[in-house]
Amino acid sequence: MRKIVFVFTILFIFAFPAFAGENVERQAQKQIIVASGDETCKNECDFNKNICKSDCSRNNLQTGSGRELAESCKGNCLKIYDHCMDRCNSSGKEISELQEQCKKNAAAFFKKEYGKGYEQSRDGSYMSTYTNHNNVKLNKCFVLIKITYVPNSKEEDALIMKELRDINENKQYGSFGRFRKESIPISCSVENKICKSEAEWDSLVKYYMEE
After folding, report:
1. 96: domain range?
2. Is 171 contained in some domain?
3. Which of 56, 67, 91, 107 has CB atoms 3.0–4.6 Å from 73's, for a disulfide?
4. What is the CA radius of gyration of the chain?
5. In total, how many domains does the chain have?
């Protein structure tokens, strides 16, 4: 798909050479796909630049006016590449700021709801931990909370609970629970998907915690 887009762009430049320079910025806006993650974005720019330059060479004769047109075409590829890198750098800074804000919000949320992560009751103790992630693709800040309840009675089994939540909207996306000695969960779901094991739940959650 990326290659088709660039071939179309090159054909457009050949047909309208007088307007090629004026359309560089417009073409850049149409073609550049700023992916999540600074390095991924820059790799995308390099990939597209190489395809663009390759198409310039392949679609021009390397002699006379054909060579000049090919060089002009490659020059436009470099201008588009510069636009792409500028957007990557800008996007990388914005993503970093969002990640930092998500981290602060998650810490505040956890402190409010779970204190220091440990609570002792008459029947047992609760130990809580969390991780957070700013999902660029979904534009959401997720917090993954794990709670282990250990009863005082040795006759009772410990309970492991997990929850996936968007803290900005205060919306639960997933929940999991099982007794420590049991492999079959008592609850296991992520949005509308029902799961049958902790491994499956963890796999479903990766989409929200790794994008």
Report:
1. 2-100
2. yes
3. 56
4. 26
5. 2
| Domain match, 66 and 127 both | no
Q: State how far the Cα of 77 lies from the Cα of 28, in Å rounded to an integer.
A: 9
**149 in a domain, yes or no?**
yes
Judge whether residue 19 has pLDDT over 80.
Answer: no
User: Which helix (H) or strand (E) covers residue 68, if one does?
Assistant: helix 64-114
Contact by Cβ (8 Å): 136, 208: no
Residue 6: strand, helix, or coil? helix
Angle, helices 64-114 vs 2-15, to 10°: value is: 140
Bigger pLDDT: 29 vs 46: 46
Token pair, residue 24, equals 């560089």
List the structure tokens of 209.
Answer: 């915690």
Task: Map tokens 């929850």 to a residue.
Answer: 163
- Beta partners for 128? 147
Check the CA dihedral 132-136-137-141 and report its sign.
Answer: positive
Task: Give this prediction's pTM.
Answer: 0.58
The pLDDT of residue 16 is 33
Question: What pairs with residue 151 in β-bridges?
Answer: 124
10 Å CB burial of residue 152 (0-12, 13-18, 19+) is exposed
Count CB-CB contacts under 10 A for residue 57.
13
CB of 205 closer than 8 Å to CB of 144: yes
* 76 shares its domain with 166: no
